[in-house]
Amino acid sequence: MGAPRPPEPERAAEVRRRFGEEARAERPDLAALCLLVGAAGDGTLDEAGEDAAQIELDRLAGQVPFRPGGAASWAEALAELLGGRHGFHGSPGDYRRLESSFLHEVLRRRRGLPILLSVVWMEVARRAGAPVYGVALPGHFVVGFGPPEEQVLADPFNAGRVLTGGDAELLVQGTTGATLDPSMLEPAAPLDVVQRVLNNIRAWAAARPERTDVSLWAVELSLLLPSHSARLRHEHAQLLVRRGDYLRGAAELDAYADVVSAVDEPAADRVRSQARAARAMLN
User: Fold this and answer.
1) Collapsing DSSP states into helix, strand and coil, what is residue 35?
2) Residue 126, pLDDT above cutoff 60
3) What pLDDT score does 178 carry?
4) Which secondary structure element, helix H or strand E, spans residue 281, and what is its range?
5) Which segments within the chain are labelled E, that is strand?
């Protein structure tokens, strides 16, 4: 079975509208945003399915047997519930599946990428009253419990294994070769988590040139986030051209050139040449 396909245009437009509104809310809902990412990529997920996923998170939170208290106790309780009783975990093969970046599929399969499994941990723990947050280690997302001076890290990809002092250092060194900096242990904001989810999806699609449809919707959602790289507009324009939408692509290239011209006129001229070449494809 192939990877999921995006929804029909009318549904896709509605998902983008709701995503943009949620991303600009005073307190963005992480679960809602991740479910909208899933809805943008999986045409089978409707609003009833989104509601069902939220209900499942509530159900799992209701199974936390007590309010453990300390950070270590919370980490152990969530590992026992989610990693042990319900079998949430990851494996190398999950990196090859687009569904591993969709929250509704991770809830169904009990499998996913580290960041989506961490979203499950965070959302269940938050509903149960835990002091929980995401920790965006380079190359491997984990969750943290408790204040900085008592922080306990857990790795949902490994069924919630509590990390010892040197484990985080080894994770960072193993994925990036860098040393662990204390700033890497700070809580990740919800929109930063969503941007990292979208970056993972874009990386998945970049390795599969036939899936420009996935690249396109992932970039379009990224552009709806309040803060994003200007180069995303260039990437969006190039995708439109690759998919045969030459007029829209050329217009996006011209708009990007106007932005770039303020700091790099030669680069802006090159982008304008790309716009002209795109329009020439119509002749």
Assistant:
1) helix
2) yes
3) 77
4) none
5) 132-137, 140-145, 152-155, 161-162, 187-188
Q: Which tokens is 105 given?
A: 């599929």
Give how far Cα 177 sits from Cα of 157, 184, 245, 281, Å.
20, 14, 41, 45
Looking at the chain, the number of H-run helices and the number of E-run strands are 12, 5
Structure-token match 């093969």, residue found: 93
Decide if pLDDT at 169 tops 80.
yes
Reading the block at residue 191, the tokens are 């929109």
109 HSE (CA, 13 A, CB side): 19
The residue among 174 and 234 whose pLDDT is bigger is 234
pLDDT band at 69 (very low <50, low <70, confident <90, very high): confident
- pLDDT category, 68, cuts 50, 70, 90? low
Strands (E) located in 156-262: 161-162, 187-188
Neighbouring C-alpha atoms within 13 Å toward the C-beta of 113? 23
For 206, 219, 233, 245, 253, the CA distances from 239, given in Å and listed in that order, are 11, 9, 10, 9, 11
Length of the chain: 283
Give me the sheet containing 161-162, strands edge to edge. 161-162, 152-155, 140-145, 132-137, 187-188
Distance of alpha carbon 93 from alpha carbon 100, whole angstroms: 10
Angle, vertex CA 234, rays to CA 267 and CA 193, nearest 5? 130
